[in-house]
Amino acid sequence: MDHKNGSLVTEFILIGFSGQWELQIFFFVTFSLIYVATVVGNILIMVTVTLSSSLHSPMYFLLGNLSFLDMCLSTVTTPKMITDLLAEHKTISLWGCMAQMFLMHFFGGAEMTLLIIMAIDRYVAICKPLHYRTIMSHKLLNRFVMLSWLIGFIHTMSQMVLTVNLPFCSHNVIDNIFCDLPLVIKLACVETYTLELFVIADSGLLSLICFILLLASYTVILVTVQQRSSGGLSKALSTLSAHIIVVTLFFGPCIFIYAWPFSGFARSKTLAVFYTVITPLLNPIIYTLRNQKMQGAMRKLKFQSC
Q1: Which residues, 6 or more positions from 305, have their beta carbon under 8 angstroms from its beta carbon?
Q2: 81-117 residue pLDDT tens
């Protein structure tokens, strides 16, 4: 049979959340509210950063881009998951599944790179404050953002180019709330051991290495500040704590899902929900509730609009 010319599988079945109808309604309401809060919160950050002159600095420029990526990452999976909660047959087309995986790794890879760029920005701001504006110029920031999108594209294409032509002959049940690359690969009716190892190297180890590098960079910043001034350490901790929280919450589930993608962790829907639903909401919460400058800019824009 020529599988490439005509795969027998034209759609996948997403098991999603099973349980009583009352529980499905509870999940529907909860995740709908979280998604709306995610979209509104991240749009609010982007609008505030764009319109407020007091936030026209490298840090907030990168934060606005992070909010955009968070919103996109959540939108790729959450609306489909929410509608499936009320659907009797939870299906997604073959190409819809491929598009979902492509966009997830695209935005995820771009956000991974952007978090590293934000660590570089904090290093320059804290360790080289007198040269901060000169080093982190608008030209360099634009190049950094373009680089993050390019790496995200390369990251997803390197995996999807090997996945899109896989033949799917009979098995089409995905035990998850969205099309997860490791689980979809296992449904192919050909040997995929080499591709499975590539996914581990490309997504899992990349996430783990980036996470370690980010923690190491924050450690270097704190050590440098402590050596220069004991009083500056508390200020540096206050500045970096939000970044460390975002990095940990973003990379933690990602590492478990993709560093050990074919173990029991891959089927943990709790991690899947946390990575695609909860984490994108934490960015606006952490950066608005903890950042007085952001709160002040939002209040100012609110008064101006009134």
Answers
A1: none
A2: 999 888 878 899 999 999 999 999 999 899 989 988 9
CA angle 214, 108, 180 (to 5 degrees): 125
Average pLDDT, the chain: 83
Contact 14, 176 (CB under 8 A): yes
Q: In 10 A of CB 103, how many CB atoms?
A: 17
Residue 138 burial (C-beta neighbours within 10 Å; 0-12, 13-18, 19+): exposed
Pair 46, 64: CB distance under 8 Å: yes
Q: How far apart are CA 261 and CA 258, in angstroms?
A: 5
Pairing relationship of beta strands 11-14 and 91-93 according to DSSP bridges: antiparallel
Is the torsion defined by CA of 88, 93, 94, 97 positive or negative? negative
Helical H segments across the chain, by residue range: 21-51, 58-84, 94-127, 132-135, 138-163, 181-186, 193-199, 206-228, 230-259, 269-273, 279-289, 292-305
Tens digit of each residue's pLDDT (9 = 90 or more) over 202-252:
777 778 888 888 888 888 888 877 777 656 666 667 667 777 777 777 777
CB-count exposure of residue 182 (10 Å: 0-12, 13-18, 19+): buried
| Distance (Å, whole) CA 124 – CA 128 | 5
Q: Which of 11, 23, 30, 7 is nearest to 277 (CA)?
A: 30
Report the C-alpha gap between 148 and 21 in whole angstroms.
Answer: 42
Phi and psi torsions of 93, nearest 5°: -65, 160
The residues, ordered by sequence, that sit 6+ positions from 236 with a Cβ below 8 Å of its Cβ are 126, 221, 222, 225
| Residue labelled with tokens 């634009």 | 142
Q: Give the containing element (helix H, strand E) for 12.
A: strand 11-14
